[in-house]
Design a protein that fits this description.
- The protein is mostly helical.
- The protein has helices spanning 2-12, 17-22, 24-41, 46-51, 57-69, 76-102.
Length: 104
């Protein structure tokens, strides 16, 4: 999940929504990274999910399903908002959690 979140953010970088709209390959890559993140969330144990309080697991899985099963209906503004608004928060939570596992 962490790698996919990081990938989606790095692919988009500082580009605007308009710039994303002009680059179909980029939009596809970012959408795919988000779908991978959602798929990976299905493999997170219930125990780990419970420890990552504040993470909206149902929404993460839902966005994956939307991107995969309704790909013709995915709006670029949804992709852009997920990457710019939601993924930085999720990535930070995942990094903090993983660091807590490494701490004695």
């Amino acid at each position: 999940m962490l790698e996919a979140a990081s990938d989606a953010q790095s692919f988009l970088g500082e580009l605007s929504l308009d710039e994303l709209a002009r680059d179909k390959k980029l939009a596809y890559a970012v959408q795919h990274a988000i779908a991978i993140l959602g798929e990976a969330s299905n493999r997170v144990s219930a125990e780990t999910q419970a420890r990552l309080t504040g993470t909206e697991w149902r929404k993460i899985k839902g966005i994956r399903n939307h991107f995969v099963h309704e790909y013709g209906k995915v709006q670029l503004d949804t992709i852009w908002e997920v990457v710019t608004r939601d993924l930085p928060v999720l990535e930070s939570a995942l990094r903090d959690f993983l660091q807590s596992l490494d701490s004695p």
